[in-house]
Known about the structure:
The complex is a heterodimer of chains A (756) and B (262). With 756 residues, chain A is α+β, with helices and mostly antiparallel strands. Chain A is built from 23 helices and 31 strands. In chain A, α5 crosses α7 (253-263), α9 (294-303) crosses α10 and α15 crosses α20 (620-635). Chain A is elongated and about 120 Å long. With 262 residues, chain B is mainly alpha-helical. Chain B is 56% helix and 0% strand. In chain B, α11 packs antiparallel against α12. The chains are: A alpha+beta (756), B mainly alpha (262). The interface between A and B is large, with 48 and 38 residues.
Amino acid sequence: MTQSKLRFLSISLVALLVVTSAGLIFGAxxxxxxxxxxxxxxxxxxxxxxxxxxxxxxxxxxxxPLRPETLIEKLRRLGYYATTGELRAKGEYRTVRSSxxxxxxxxxxxxxxxxxxxxxxxxxxxxxxxxxxxxxATGQEMFSLELEPELVTGLYERxxxxxxxxxxADVPPLLVKAILAVEDERFYRHHGIDPVGIxxxxxxxxxxxxxxxxxxxxxxxxxxxxFLSDERxxxxxxxxxxxxxxxxxxxxKDTILENYLNEIYLGQKGSQGIFGVWxxxxxxxxxxxxxxxxxxxxxxxxxxxxxxxxxxxxxYEAATRRRNVVLTKLLDDQIITRKEYDTALREKLPQRxxxxxxxxxxxxxxxxxxxxxxxxxxxxxxxxxxxxFSSLDLQLQKIAERSLAEGLNKLEAAHPALRRKxxxxxxxxxxVLRPQTGEIKAMVGGRSYSKSQFxxxxxxxxxxxxxxxxFVYLAALMYGGQSGIKYTPDTxxxxxxxxxxxxxxxxxxxxxxxxxxxxxxxxxxxxxxxxSATSRVAQDVGIRRVRDVAHxxxxxxxxxxxxxxxxxxxxxxPLEVAVAYSTLANGGVRPRPLAVRNVIDQxxxxxxxxxxxxxxxxxxxxxxxxxxxxKGVLDRGTGAMARRWGFTxxxxxxxxxxxxxxDAWFVGYTPDLLAVVWVGFDGPSKLNLSGAEAALPIWTDFxxxxxxxxxxxxxxxxxxxxxxxxxxxSCEPGPEGTITPxxxxxxxxxxxxxxx
Amino acid sequence: xxxxxxxxxxxxxxxxxxxxxxxCEPPRPYRIPIPPPSNPVLRTPPxxxxxxxxxxxPPPAPVESPRKPLxxxxxxxxxxxxxxxxxxxxxxxxxxxxxxxxxxxGIPPASETPLPLPDxxxxxxxxxxxxxxxxxxxxxxxxxxxxxxxxxxPAKALxxxxxxxxxxxxxxxxxxxxxxxxxxxxxxxxSLNFLNIAESRLASEPFWLAEVHALRGENYRALGQLQSAExxxxxxxxxxxxxxxxxxxxxxxxTDNSFSGK
Lengths: 756, 262
């Protein structure tokens, strides 16, 4: 009996021992785990910085066409806010109607190649142009001024945390004291958790029967933000408390405080979360920390509890009340004097609505991301805070998006057969380039990004149809015919049915609506996009030469050297077409398309710079002649409707319709801006509309708005070259990239070549 | 007496004064003693259109004379480029003055040597009342870019210069300085591409055309294509015997040749 009792006792003891030691071991392991986590977070990379994509900057210069509304719209998008009095802080602007001036206190901005420090400037308008720029700080006249680029989007995972790190020493002591006073009075006296604080909070909450105070120390708040999700359960409280204790044991109070000041969430600006005191001071007051007033410091400290509910952007009154509560607390704790308190109470909080700007250009951003992904991993892009400067012009982007959406809607309204239910709806794409630099200024890859992210500008290979024809005519002007004909715009071509026999096969091109015009001029054949005449020219020149010319201009997709290539029976992307036509617009100089211009890291070190690259691939004389011919398309040919719709600037262009009526194109350009519009279905459905019917209206609508504030320019004839041998008719790239001259080309007088 | 003074200038002060001299009308300010031989090309007055480039090879002799006025023997290309444009010394006004002198470039080819052209390198001087705001702004930015190049910051200059062609795609000087920036960055092929564009737009400006050929020569030399370099330099000298980049370049080619010859 006693033995069995003993036995039971010893078993129990052993079991207890085992359980206890297991518990201890588990406890120690768990503790170690927590400790590791704390160390890792404090000492490893703690902060995640999203990369940001910016638009192109905006250059203002004396004499630039500029409407005041355009400038103000631009300023608003850049986050400038209107004020009525004198400009006091960076980010303010005011319009002085009486004198027709706009004054702007420019932001600081780190451009890729230099740091710009904001100054107040006065822009004087005269009619719709900028007459004078003056630096108000120095009184000096300026000739040009670069407005900072617009933020397009951040690249981040889950949430966009906007923050800039500060050192504790750089945070004004008053702000620190204010934060401690309202969030954790006994910070310097506890060891991570504060039983006194908890008891007091419980007492206050019980007494008022509401949640008034939390008992969490700064350390606990930091730990919570650092490591744990947002649920408020007891099971989370325990590891949180333990980690707070560990953090306090391992790190100094100052380290913890500094981390806290950088970590706290302080508001929301659209999709960006405002984190840390530096970013908050910028967001609410547009100031660096060192310039904060007593009242502003009190408000920032007060906002921590409920940044969005108490935000001055949301409620001026709630924010003022909260600030005053904090000020009273500071006075009670003798952190500020009565006089400071009184002054601070009289301060007015900024009273302005939060301008929410959605600068999104999702198709463009996707294209940029794709380019970036060649060199940067996703982790780098979402965490390392790179700044990516692009060529995007948000204004043109908005116009392009609107023109495409409205244009497609109108098409569906006018042609109900185009309306499809389900997946295969009518689609379109626009890409806009600056021919001189190759900068991609805007890109809309489809009708709705939310429905389909497929970017038709560079992912869809489509038949170019008649958009390809100019390459035939260019080849003809460049090389002449195998028959010995030297083509000029006045050369007579036979536009009648014929058969092109090749490789034992026959190919018979047919004209639009089977109409044939007999003897036509070269110019007329191109302007009216006559299939039969074009094919005859291509046959005479040789299809390989046509293909080579297309490649030289910038078409990169493989092109079959078959007769039907003359009418665009190949597959190319709208972006390639844009580059090839840019070469014509740019006087024979092929640009390389540029979306990403610069990438800089957080320390403004330039990681990558993509320069404008250009290559003279056909002679300026030839390019000028082609532009002249293609101007005829708009003035008299298949694109003439654009003129009737009110687009009157000097411009060249070409319609494109494929034989099977699946693709409709229009490519058109002024010397300074080029846009390619494609309309069609992703699937096999037929559009049954020509380029002039489906794409030209969209192009015209876009160009009319896009060029409204640009100076009118025309294609400049190349300077007469003394002795054609001297002209850089860089035709045939030879070995080592050396260049041999093209056969000389006669540029005939324009007047004699009016079409029939 | 005047002639004597000029001579002294010639030997002591180098290219800046050379230009001044050129501007002060002289019947024969200074001559590059190109051996008379049968090269009619060299007699063409500078602004006249360029004849064939092909049988260029005027014997290396011409390089001798420009050498004397040079204060130092430049070995470093960048350096060379930086202090090349003689205009740097003279403000725009001076340029205009010299340009105003009617017969500087137009003297009948009494001499066998082309005269140095009046300095036309000041971009700000090109901002005249009739110029469009786009061209004016573009020229000012080009000038800024040029200064940045001179101060040895081609990367920053490039950013400015790219703007110049955005504002005014017909500004040929923008393309020239883009080429220069690319050259300074060591991207010779790119530089040559921009020079082609600049050339096509500067065909009627012999001073600038000479600059284009000279810089092309520099690029070819950097690429090791010495024959092309020589031809380009010679073309530049034929257009403007005062183009120092070209004369220096020819000289250096010759020196290099004689070294390798040994």
